[in-house]
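Researcher: We plan to redesign the surface later, but first we want a full-length starting point. Tokens attached.
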């Protein structure tokens, strides 16, 4: 099988095998070493005041960051350009008042488009998706988040399909809360969310009087980490092993800077090949994702079906407006160019 879905992504054999170990308890010295090591690696890739690994999917990580930092009576401005931006707004609306501004499918947010919404908003919080997975659109978060930050807002970014293949640096981008999932860019199995929090973000959390969750209470996570480099509750130990191997493979490839270059190059390659076949790309020029590519195909369902039934290749459709006539090829994590070439070579045969 060739798996080119935008998560779970293909998991390297070395990563899969890294999980096949005798079970340890999360109250053991071995676990403390494992978790401590992962947090140190996360902070070396993306310097932050605090970093945590949460057992649960990306959505849990997003929800945890929101519920630990916003107050019910406050406001959050969410800029959305697709399914995941809408979900971010929906999640936030459980905990605070949300104002959501939307762009048409395929369009990306840049500062020019975002500025008036930020200027006209009295929200204390600002949130955006780094890479809108539904249409493979990369928002220009550096300029937008720095601006929102300069206006005194706390800034939260859903990077579930962005990290580590898309440039980011919390302080330089004005980001306080950043989160991804193990099953996407990290190239590990699904099961944990990776969270990074800036100094200002952590001070905000520390100042919160009440946090409406036991499991997601980040103060409890920090207290347990400080005490013993452990988690308050039972974590998905095997995924922690997998993640350690993912990081080792990433380091062996040249580390985080190389990861961004590798992602950028493969995305340019996939777009070039698709354009040569006269497929129309969905992402607006200048906003193309580094980690996956979406393109129009009137018979998307048929193409997907043929690729799966004849060749056991899994690609997925787009979300929202392009659900019926858009396809996505993911090239994140430990993607294999040879497999991407197979699907690109087959597209003329299956497009009908
Ligand atoms: C940008 C974005 N946000 C959030 C999610 C939800 O992540 P999860 O399914 O890990 O909860 C996804 C999943 O595809 C995503 O791409």
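Model: Full-length starting sequence:
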């Amino acid at each position: 099988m060739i798996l080119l879905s935008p998560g779970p992504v293909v998991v390297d054999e070395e990563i899969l095998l890294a999980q096949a170990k005798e079970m340890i308890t999360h109250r053991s010295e071995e676990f403390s070493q494992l978790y401590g090591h992962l947090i140190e690696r996360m902070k070396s890739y993306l310097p932050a005041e605090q970093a945590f690994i949460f057992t649960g999917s990306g959505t849990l990580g997003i929800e945890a960051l929101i519920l630990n930092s916003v107050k019910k009576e406050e406001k959050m401005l969410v800029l959305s350009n697709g399914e995941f931006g809408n979900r971010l707004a929906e999640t936030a609306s459980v905990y605070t008042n949300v104002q959501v501004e939307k762009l048409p499918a395929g369009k990306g947010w840049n500062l020019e488009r975002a500025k008036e919404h930020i200027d006209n908003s009295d929200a204390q919080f600002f949130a955006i998706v780094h890479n809108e997975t539904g249409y493979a659109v990369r928002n220009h978060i550096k300029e937008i988040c720095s601006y929102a930050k300069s206006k005194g807002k706390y800034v939260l970014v859903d990077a579930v399909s962005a990290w580590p293949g898309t440039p980011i640096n919390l302080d330089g981008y004005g980001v306080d809360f950043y989160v991804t999932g193990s099953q996407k860019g990290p190239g590990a199995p699904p099961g944990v969310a990776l969270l990074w929090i800036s100094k200002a973000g952590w001070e905000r959390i520390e100042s919160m009087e009440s946090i409406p969750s036991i499991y997601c209470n980040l103060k409890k996570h920090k207290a347990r980490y400080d005490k013993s480099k452990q988690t308050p509750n039972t974590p998905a130990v095997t995924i922690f092993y997998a993640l350690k191997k993912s990081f080792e493979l990433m380091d062996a490839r040249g580390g985080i800077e190389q990861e961004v270059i590798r992602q950028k190059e493969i995305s340019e390659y996939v777009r070039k090949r698709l354009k040569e076949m006269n497929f129309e790309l969905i992402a607006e020029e200048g906003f193309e994702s580094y980690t996956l590519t979406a393109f129009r195909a009137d018979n998307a369902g048929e193409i997907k079906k043929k690729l799966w039934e004849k060749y056991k290749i899994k690609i997925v459709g787009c979300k929202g407006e392009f659900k019926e006539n858009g396809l996505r090829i993911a090239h994140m994590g430990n993607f294999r160019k040879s497999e991407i070439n197979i699907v690109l070579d087959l597209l003329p045969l299956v497009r009908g």
